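Hi V.,

Quick status before I head out on leave. The structure for the redesign project is tokenized and pasted below; the design run finished overnight.
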């Protein structure tokens, strides 16, 4: 039996590294030309290096070019798709018919974006006949409708979302952000949405009477989470499971991808249970989430699937910056770290990352040395009184530092920082 493909999101090489142990493939965007323009994204110059890393680590690499395209951008689009073919990108995720035409000219595999809102078998076969290798179905579909579309396709694969943020417009075009801001530069269809659907809105009558509509945030959807329904989704013969999150930091990508990998493997091994599913949901709640909903797979979405109280993260876990890496010693697998914002304790869940480097290390703090001695807890470092320690690190370490160390915890611990 062919196993379902697990597809992880990435905004940079760090996120790809984070997913590499658990995903079958990753998808990412190019600067200036995808649906997540506010994210970091990959540069065209780095596309070859990033693709090589993916293939060296047994990952398929998919590039998103799924925005609306105008005439003055066709040359840029052609350059991106041609470059993708040259460096070995496995498929392009696209939306615009012009992008399909160019992909066919260049002879590169392409997947139809959920932005195309494919909701029936006839539409799916239309794109299949155009040469689409895979169709990412509309997110409004029930599982029964997905099964029907899959049955009526001859060879094209079907991909569905299994986890992550859900837009108020779900899969289709949305002009809310553009209209609110009065400029196409903030268009969701151009990858620059400011997410007005997450905000609190009032309704005002012509008479001047105001109403707080539907409690508070009536358009703020909870995040999709289907981990308890993995057996049903695999049973529908879906070919690929996609995790949303190209604006999320690498640690989020790692935890979500790892958790879904465990659930998928448990299904194939015959060990999937509701008890395990409950534990996986608890794990997913540790990272950024707005509360969870199974989406449209089994029922019509109602107000219960929206988060009225908070527009942002409900997780009780936080990232706390402790200090910076001064030096790496790859031969002996340790790092010299300067603590300037707290202390480190044995078995702390730590993340080492850099804004200007590709470093991503996630591990438990096992061996900590202070003043040449192995310790269970370091003194507290401050900006005025820094504490230098030596920490055993696992994984690839390169460069002369420039990276930051964080702990991931739900304990009260001084000042909080969000990962870059």
């Amino acid at each position: 039996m062919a196993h379902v493909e697990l597809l992880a999101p990435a905004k940079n090489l760090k996120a790809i590294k984070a997913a590499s142990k658990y995903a079958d493939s990753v998808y990412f965007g190019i600067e200036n030309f995808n649906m997540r323009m506010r994210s970091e994204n990959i540069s065209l110059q780095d596309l070859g290096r990033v693709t090589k890393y993916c293939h060296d680590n047994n990952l398929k690499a998919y590039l998103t070019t799924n925005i609306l395209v105008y005439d003055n951008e066709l040359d840029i689009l052609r350059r991106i798709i041609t470059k993708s073919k040259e460096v070995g990108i496995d498929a392009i995720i696209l939306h615009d018919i012009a992008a399909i035409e160019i992909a066919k000219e260049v002879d590169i595999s392409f997947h139809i974006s959920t932005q195309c809102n494919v909701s029936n078998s006839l539409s799916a076969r239309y794109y299949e006949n155009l040469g689409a290798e895979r169709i990412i179905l509309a997110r409004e579909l029930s599982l029964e409708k997905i099964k029907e579309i899959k049955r009526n396709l001859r060879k094209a694969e079907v991909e569905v979302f299994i986890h992550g943020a859900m837009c108020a417009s779900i899969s289709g075009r949305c002009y809310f952000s553009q209209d609110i801001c009065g400029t196409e530069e903030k268009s969701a269809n151009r990858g620059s949405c400011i997410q007005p659907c997450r905000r609190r809105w009032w309704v005002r009558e012509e008479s001047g009477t105001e109403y707080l509509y539907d409690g508070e945030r009536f358009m703020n959807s909870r995040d999709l989470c289907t981990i308890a329904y993995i057996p049903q989704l695999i049973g529908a013969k879906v070919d690929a499971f996609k995790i949303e999150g190209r604006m999320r930091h690498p640690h989020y990508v790692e935890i979500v991808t790892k958790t879904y990998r465990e659930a998928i493997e448990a299904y194939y091994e015959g060990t999937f249970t509701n008890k395990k599913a409950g534990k996986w949901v608890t794990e997913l709640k540790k990272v950024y989430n707005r509360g969870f909903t199974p989406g449209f797979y089994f029922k019509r979405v109602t107000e219960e699937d929206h988060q009225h109280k908070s527009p942002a993260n409900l997780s009780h876990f936080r990232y706390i910056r402790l200090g910076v890496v001064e030096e790496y010693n790859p031969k002996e697998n340790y790092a010299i770290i300067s603590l300037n914002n707290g202390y480190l304790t044995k078995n702390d869940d730590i993340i080492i990352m850099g804004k200007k480097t590709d470093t991503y290390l996630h591990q438990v703090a096992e061996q900590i040395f202070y003043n040449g001695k192995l310790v269970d807890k370091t003194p507290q470092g401050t900006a005025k009184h820094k504490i230098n320690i030596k920490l055993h690190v696992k994984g690839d370490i390169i460069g002369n530092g420039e990276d930051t160390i964080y702990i991931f915890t739900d304990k009260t611990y001084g000042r909080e920082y969000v990962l870059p």
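Above is the designed sequence. The longest helix spans residues 250-269.

G. will cover questions while I'm gone.

Best,
W.
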